Amino acid sequence: MHQLNALIPELSVSNIERSLEFYLEILTFKIEYERLEDKFALLSLSDCQIMIEEVNGHWDTGKLSYPFGRGVNFQITINDIDPIYRNLIKHDYPIKFDIQENWYRANTKIKGQKEFLIMDPDGYLLRFVQDLGEKNIKEND
């Protein structure tokens, strides 16, 4: 098992079996461990980790309604996003924002990433990212 990250989001899901099928079969995450009696699993993809647990009332802070992930998107950085993108297309899974290259300013540099966004079955926004490196910002930019 990977070492646990210092921050691991735990997503409440409406149906653990449907979410596991999505994350394992389509997105190619793997199960690090699970607690079947709690309908819980810790999943990983490269160095990324998430926990999913079927809604049970224990952690609720309010009424959940679709899309569950309003106001947040999870950036998942991996070496090559193309195989996952192709798998989504193969499964006819809807793409929220199609694959594109974007450059973002970070102080005196710009960082490039190839990325696309999808929503998981419960409406959590997932942004798959491939690092394209960085460049210095030109004086005129």
List strands and helices in order, with pairings.
Layout: E1 10-13, H1 16-26, E2 30-35, E3 40-45, E4 48-54, E5 73-77, H2 82-90, E6 97-106, E7 109-119, E8 125-136
CATH architecture: Roll
How many helices? The count is 2
Poorly predicted regions: none
Which strands sit side by side, in order, in the main sheet? 1-4-3-2
Order of helices and strands: EHEEEEHEEE
Please identify the top-level CATH class.
Answer: Alpha Beta
- Structural class based on helices, strands and sheet pairing: mainly beta
How many whole angstroms does the radius of gyration measure? Answer: 17 Å
| Residue-averaged pLDDT | 93
Terminus-to-terminus distance: 45 Å
CATH superfamily membership, which one? 2,3-Dihydroxybiphenyl 1,2-Dioxygenase, domain 1
Q: Estimate the strand proportion.
A: 35-45%
Using the coordinates shown, work out and report the CATH topology.
2,3-Dihydroxybiphenyl 1,2-Dioxygenase, domain 1
Can you tell me the number of structural domains?
1
Shape descriptor reads globular
Keywords: Antibiotic resistance
Protein name: Bleomycin resistance protein
Pfam family, one: Glyoxalase
Family: Belongs to the bleomycin resistance protein family.
